Amino acid sequence: MSFCQHKGMALAGFKIAIRYRWENIAQVLTNPISLIVYYFLWKAIYAYTGQEIIRGFTFPDLVHYYVLAMIVGFFTWSEVDKWIEYDVIHGKMTNALIRPFGFLYWYLSFETGISIYNLIVQTIPVFIIGFIFFNLQVQGLTVFLGFFASTTLAFFIYFGLAFLLGLAAFWMKRITGLRRVRRIIIGFLGGSFIPLTFFPNWLQQISHFLPFEYVRSVPILVYLERISIFNALATQLIWMIIIYLLIHIISKKAIKRYASVGL
């Protein structure tokens, strides 16, 4: 896939994201409200328990965690499974399959454009809000670069997981229910709703062997300097390789089915 082709599809994704500008504007306006809700909720919990540290988090640490969770979530969010489902149902998958650079990279470039839009419209504003109103600490260059690298790998992992689920549409066509389950599982086991340290020890141990925490929790902990940057990036890279190997294997079967059945 050439740079021009990648740029063209990324631009297409960027333009599609602009079409939902009113939805994005609404999210920009409601994001501070969500953070305020988390702020007062956990302030009440800490006041009620009388503890300064709960599960390894002080109150300011936990507020910063939710700010970063929102930031990472905006940048890594992908609904490629929705696009695949739509193209399979409406017979538009052929347009992607005939691309000379492969339909995986076709969708990846498209989603990259959407993520760039989210970075500009949602991620950066939340960063600014976090610094101004929630005293989010400005980290050093090494930590910030580690956070950026970890968040970028998280994007590829999230995209890969969503893409794998999207391939189910070649057999099932409609996967709306599965997509909802995917969002809940990644949100829960990824640490979006609550830090994983609040889970029972047995569930924490299980989550370490699953890719979900490397989509949300790990980039956050890198920024908070709670885990090794090297170990985080190395493990994320391993998961990314595993996921894309699975995509390579399953997509071949999906394409054969599409060609033979004529979906």
Structural summary, described in words:
By secondary structure, the protein is mainly alpha-helical. The chain has one domain. It is 77% helix and 2% strand. It contains twelve helices and two strands. Strands 1-2 form a two-stranded antiparallel ribbon. α2 crosses α6 and α4 packs parallel to α7 (141-167). It is globular.
Q: SS-based structural class?
A: mainly alpha
DSSP strand (E) fraction?
under 5%
Helix count equals 12
Helix content: over 70%
Number of strands: 2
Give the overall average pLDDT: 84
Strand sequence of the main sheet, in spatial order?
1-2
* Main sheet specs: 2 strands, antiparallel
Task: Give helix and strand order, one letter per element, not per position.
Answer: HHEEHHHHHHHHHH
Q: What's the alpha carbon Rg, rounded to whole Å?
A: 19 Å
Unreliable stretches covering 5 or more consecutive residues: none
Which geometry do the CA atoms define? globular
Q: Please indicate the count of domains.
A: 1
Report how far apart the termini are. 26 Å
